[in-house]
Amino acid sequence: MANTSSPKPQPVNSKSPKKGKKEDGWLSYHIRATFGPLFLMTSTPTSLVIVWMINQFYDGSILRFVREITWKDLTARWPVPDLTTVSIVLTFAVFEALLLVFVPGRIFKGPITPAGNQPTYRLNGVASYLLSLATLIICFVSGVIPLDLVYDNLGKILQFMSYVSFVFCIFLYFKGIYFPSSTDSGTSGNIVWDFYWGTELHPQLSSSFNLKQYCNCRLGMMGWAVLIVCFAAKQYSQLGYITNSSIASLILQQIYIFKFYLWEDGYFASLDIMHDRFGYYICWGVLSWIAGIYTFVSQFLVNHPIDLPPVLFYGYLALGIFFVWANYDADAQRLRVRQTKGNTTVWGSKPKIMTAKYKTSDGKEHSSILLLSGWWGIARHVHYSPHSSTNIHL
After folding, report:
1. Which of 156, 259, 313, 349 has its Cα between 20 and 30 A from that of 224?
2. DSSP states of 108-172 as a string?
3. Do residues 97 and 68 touch, judged by C-beta distance below 8 A?
4. DSSP code of 377?
5. pLDDT, tens digit, for every residue of 147-166?
6. Residue 351 burial (CB < 10 Å; 0-12/13-18/19+)?
């Protein structure tokens, strides 16, 4: 998920865009609060399908797509969801919802929100991850799910998920206005911005079913883990084996995703959970963008088998694992220091910390511990460097 947020025209709980208009000017305000979001919401679903099409039919080459594409080819190859598509998506969505609700896990209270609320989450990510992959593999081995089913319907799945995202965002828009889960909700007076950014920070269906967690962690991230296994299965069905380049990419991605679930409580303290409301910006991203873009390399390798020399295979794996570990360790240091209020060690020494104070919109004062040693003594946001290197390796 995105760790940075686009400029907001209003504070989280503001109900009027007038201040933003006066400070920025009418044109500047509407470029970032109306025209920009409109452009993104109308262009991203189409762009996602085109990226899939480039990968599927044009060997991943944008130049070849531009040179060869015709309107006839575009319309003929444009995916149209069918009952198979709907059954794949609904089966996965229901299965993950059941895991979130019924798999045991401790209840975790997230950071205090700008309005002074504290959302709750059920931490059963690791168990849900293992159960999801085990169930998928059993279904493949037993023949319940054909090896090529998901890959052959990927374009339709991506198109269907864009439809689902829009419908779900309509639900979120009205829920935040009429049935909010907390006081971290409201509108800015700009319907386009409110639909794009969201009308609620932490929408919940119940005390143990957080919609942000379900969509981000169980549909988006878990969908990523499941899809790349399906793509490896497709290659196996074509070649009779899986190339070591696909194996290396699959292993590194699964380690990265498993790390995410180990660190799930830390993720709930990240920007897109703490500060970004739940509207199209996040919702479409986790339900559609992750499935189509994060799995791009695995999609490409299905029809472009590459067998690496052993030294490159193991070197690639070792370097990738190091980057994933470094990213995890940096985040773990920060989380551990905050949870223990500095009463721990970082790289064998007492951590250097700074206490930052802030006020939420309800007027209450809070404090947060900033780590200044370990990985965080090297550079600010040092975790982005191994994270970016990991993305290159995936």
Report:
1. 313
2. EE-PPPTTS---EEEE-HHHHHHHHHHHHHHHHHHTSS-TTHHHHTHHHHHHHHHHHHHHHHHHH
3. no
4. G
5. 899 999 999 999 999 999 99
6. buried
> Could you report the per-residue pLDDT of 69-86, keeping only the tens digit for each?
999 999 999 999 999 999
- pTM confidence score: 0.85
d(CA 270, CA 174): 26
For 358, the enclosing helix (H) or strand (E) is: strand 353-359
Task: Give the span between the Cα atoms of 198 and 188, in whole angstroms.
Answer: 10
d(C-alpha 239, C-alpha 13), whole Å = 55
Alpha-carbon span 176 to 164, nearest angstrom: 18
**Residues 268 and 153: beta-carbon distance below 8 Å:** no
Amino acid letter, 182:
S
Task: Decide if 283 contacts 167 (C-beta within 8 A).
Answer: no
